[in-house]
Amino acid sequence: MALEKLKIKSKGKEFAAMVNPQEFSVKDSIKYSQTNESRSPKFEQYEGSKFSVPKIFLDTTGAIPMEHWPVKNGSIDDMITALKKVVYDYDGDSHEPPIVEVIWGSNHFKGRLLTIDTKFTLFDNQGSPLRAEVQLEFTSYDTMKELEAKANKHSPDLTHIIEVKSGDTLPNLCNKVYNDPSYYMQVARINGLSSFCRLKPGTRLVFPPLVD
Fold first, then answer.
1. Which residues of the chain are in CATH 2.40.30 domains?
2. What is the pLDDT of residues 149-162, one digit of tens each?
3. Torsion of the alpha carbons at 23, 24, 28 and 29, rounded to the nearest 10
4. Mind listing the pLDDT tens digit for each residue in 53-78?
5. Would you say 59 and 21 are in contact if contact means Cβ atoms under 8 Å apart?
6. What's the count of helices (H) and strands (E) in the chain, helices before strands?
7. What CATH number was assigned to the domain covering residues 7-150?
């Protein structure tokens, strides 16, 4: 069975690694805001993932058979140019850097390049590089449809419409949506409720994003 190589693709162009990296990393993060000193940080949003390939190894010494070179008979500079055409060069159609797919076995990441860091490690007598290590860092890219699919439907930053069930109280529903029952007066006012103590089952209430 042939070795599955890490491949980087964008808009009909492809770059295959000469040697598979020993590691890659994915970083996910969440953004919070401190609304006031007396309360815990408030969730704002899930931030995009960061994906990095710490080392793409390039070598023209002959240590790696030419059949595995990304550019046949190419120099290190030619290989870096070929890589940049896939991940870095400006896309004249979309007027922005390309959307890139990084594929390695079951790992599939779609994003845009943040940084490309090249380290030259061996040179010939004329000073031309014979080896290089390239580090790539990407930020995730999602279409609007994908963002909607990932949206946390329980987030307090989204508008909710909830149908009242028997036993529901406004403070309890506010606690469910906002993690804070004290918003019940605001929600009552928004929904035109004359009494928040008695909620009629079947009533549909709006719970919009609220700001302290």
1. 7-150
2. 554 555 556 678 88
3. 80
4. 989 999 999 999 999 999 999 999 99
5. no
6. 4, 9
7. 2.40.30
